[in-house]
Amino acid sequence: MNQDQVKTALLSIENSPLDFTLIFSGKLSKKINGLYKPETREIIIHNRNFSDDNLLLYTAIHEYAHHLHACFRGGTLSTRAHTADFWAILHRLLEKAEAQGLYKNVFAASPELAELTETIRTRYLYENGNIVKDLGMHLLRAHELCVSIGGRFEDYIDRVLRIPRTAANMAVKMYQYNLNPSIGSDNMRFLAGIKNVDERMSAEASLLKGKSPDTVRIEAKRRTVGSQPPEAEDPKLRLEKEKIRLERTIASLSKRLDEVERELGQC
């Protein structure tokens, strides 16, 4: 691909509010693959770094995300360029490029990597999320016991378990909200901090559909501050949210039924 073809590809992915220049430096750089200059709105690609058009296009999309981020900020960028807003823009562009067939998702092309990904998700992300969720259940029981013996639960957390109160509170919320552990404990902590039920379920549904954490965080932030006009809820999304709510209720009732049956067996 030449520089004109790359610029045409970028504009076909998403149009730019402000024009920009894309330049192939013709150089090999050991430090960076490309850069964006907001003052002159120039994307510079060190094209000799690449023997593969797909990798070159990834770098171009990355720098184009900086350009679009600068456009949204009035043509300037802060000293910290790689913010959550930037990553959300980049991930949106990559999804569009993949959908158009301009950029190839190489992660899906490797059976060995796909197998390893499934191992990481099931043995580590899910298990870790499930363990923290179970911790929340046991902490609730500990709270009940502390109350029954006249002890302060906060003191128990501080001096007996010796864990941060915020971590304990998050674990309890993960259990109370019955969050899906397949998204991993870090994403569960983020969801546990969302008080509004519908907002929390929308964020969880987005993560389960494969949206990146940065994208979901920015979407949740924009809905909260009202920086975007509200849109009519998609019927499919509404049904997905209702499905999650029903599954959560069924799981909670099933767990409580098991507890009652155990207690009855001990009577």
Can you put this structure into words, describing what you see?
It contains ten helices and three strands, in the order αβββααααααααα. The chain is mainly α and 267 residues long. A three-stranded mixed sheet has the order 1-3-2. α4 (111-148) packs across α6, α6 crosses α7 and α8 crosses α10 (235-266). It has two domains: 3-108, Zincin-like (2-Layer Sandwich), CATH 3.30.2010; 110-233, no CATH class. A hairpin with a 4-residue loop joins β2 and β3 (42-45).
Overview in brief:
The chain is mostly helical and 267 residues long. It has helices spanning 3-13, 53-72, 84-100, 111-148, 153-161, 165-176, 185-192, 197-208, 213-225, 235-266, and strands at 21-24, 34-37, 42-45.
Would you spell out the secondary-structure blueprint of this structure?
Blueprint (H helix, E strand, L loop, with lengths): L2 H11 L7 E4 L9 E4 L4 E4 L7 H20 L11 H17 L10 H38 L4 H9 L3 H12 L8 H8 L4 H12 L4 H13 L9 H32 L1
Parallel strand pairs: 1-3
Antiparallel strand pairs: 2-3
